Amino acid sequence: MRDDQASLVIDSSYIGYQARYTMGDLSHDDLPTGVIFGFLSRILHLGLMFGTNDLSFCWDSRHSLRRDIYPDYKKKKKDRTQIELDEIALMKDQFKVLRKKILPMIGFNNHFIQPGYESDDIMASIVFTKLGDWILVTGDEDLFQCISNNTRVYSPSKKKMMTLKRFFEEKQITPGTWVRVKMTAGCKSDNVIGIEGVGEKKAIQFLNRQMKPGKTLDKINAGKKLIDSNRVLVELPFPGTKEPTFRPNIFSMKGFEKVCKHYGFHSFLQPEHLEEWETFFKLHRTESPGSQYNKTRKKGMRS
Predict the structure, then answer these.
(1) Distance, CA of 50 to CA of 63 (rounded, Å)
(2) I want to staple 34 with a disulfide (CB 3.0 to 4.6 A). Which of 24, 121, 124, 193 is the partner?
(3) Count of CB atoms within 10 A of residue 215's CB?
């Protein structure tokens, strides 16, 4: 599945959580390294699969401006055990090391985090403001509202690419209407409450004016205040998200090898895997990665 013209925008927290569940127990010299190793393995796989090393990384902030508005935002119904909390803390420590030390040492220069904002907000800000051909790598369907002729959403867990054509065929609405679906039906993963008894399919029926008169239609019409209040929780990007500035990536095999030796990633230095990394770093682009994407769209323009 090569796509030599595309740039990958990575939902880094999503990829990091995936790594935690598969490689979380890995350590070196009593230093937890599983998330770091799993993260690097995944970005290598994605880069080779799509034929590009033009990757940027977006991270969640610990503080949430949405939670300031709605305290139950992303609140889990089940309290986590102390063991789970400790595991998450170790994972987030590795996130910080990846973002501040490892990715820059390897030569990735585009990693973005903004206090109060989520990775989704930054990803949406990129595709709504920057010229380019984008693939958003995430498991979060909120980002379907960003789909356009030049923006697709790829889910590694489902191994599925959501294009503009596929989205319309499956959902029978435009991506611009997706936010209205979330406003009406709510979002279980974010604990955003929608109209009782209304899921995605019924919300789409309502928005397409295909819903027959009855109790469900009456509840939606009566719930306009709730629906409107949900907009700020589900629409991307959240107000005030800053437009990221890109820099060219400058890859360093020396830096990569230093990372591998320090963290005990000896398998990456085996000939067959080292050759994959060398191939990844040398993937050709007509322009330096990131350099063309500081060209902006018209203010407020969405494809």
Answers:
(1) 33
(2) 24
(3) 8
Question: Which is it for the CA torsion 72, 76, 81, 86, positive or negative?
Answer: negative
With a cut of 70, say whether residue 283 has pLDDT above it: yes
pLDDT of residue 226: 98
In a domain, 303, yes or no: no
State the CATH number of the domain containing residue 102.
3.40.50.1010
Average pLDDT over residues 30-46: 94
193 domain-assigned? no
Confirm whether 42 is domain-assigned. yes
In a domain, 155, yes or no: yes
Structure pTM? 0.92
CB 144 within 8 A of CB 180: no
Range of the domain at 265: 7-172+236-294
SS3 labels along 16-47: HHHHHHHHCCCEECCEECHHHHHHHHHHHHHH
Q: How many domains does the chain have?
A: 1
